[in-house]
């Protein structure tokens, strides 16, 4: 099925008191040069195998829920291509999709390990017209939907993109080097380097 999404960096952290948090770890079975992604994901206590094709706003996605045993069988094959994050799911205020009644859901990902302090927010739409109409709230920052470096597979393989103020790529130990502090982005929980 089609997945229609727009993705943004954060200008600031919103109030998440009504949002739900789930731990996510995901790893990629395919290398970056493959046009199709094959992703293993643990979300809370559930496990998924997902195939994704295409890039940008509209992507093709197939997903199946799998067992923990099946997940563990393939997880070792994702070494070096993994992402850990906390995903906050909540509702946007009505109106930002042009319909005063409708409420869109957001997914705010707080990346961990070598990808901290990256945070991104995604909104999924029923169709392309709704995606086009979308007016992001003021806590959304720069849109990165079309920037391949912010795809989770690219982040898993290369780490934080250089030149974005978020980091200069993954260090040899895979822990990332995201110590830049000039991003102007929020970075709650980031340890003070001093
Ligand atoms: O939750 P999804 O399926 O949108 O996937 P993601 O982990 O946000 O990854 P991507 O960078 O492929 O949208």
From TrEMBL:
Name the chain's protein. Answer: Inorganic triphosphatase
Q: Which residues form the active site?
A: 28 (proton acceptor)
Q: Which residues form the signal peptide?
A: none
Q: What class of enzyme is it?
A: hydrolase
Which keywords are on file for this protein? Hydrolase
Where does the CYTH domain start and stop, copy by copy?
1-157
Q: Gene3D superfamilies annotated for this entry?
A: Hypothetical Protein Pfu-838710-001
Q: Which Pfam families match?
A: CYTH
Task: Name the segments for region: Disordered.
Answer: 159-194
Q: Where is the composition biased (Low complexity)?
A: 178-187
Q: What is its EC number?
A: 3.6.1.25
Q: Listed GO molecular functions?
A: inorganic triphosphate phosphatase activity
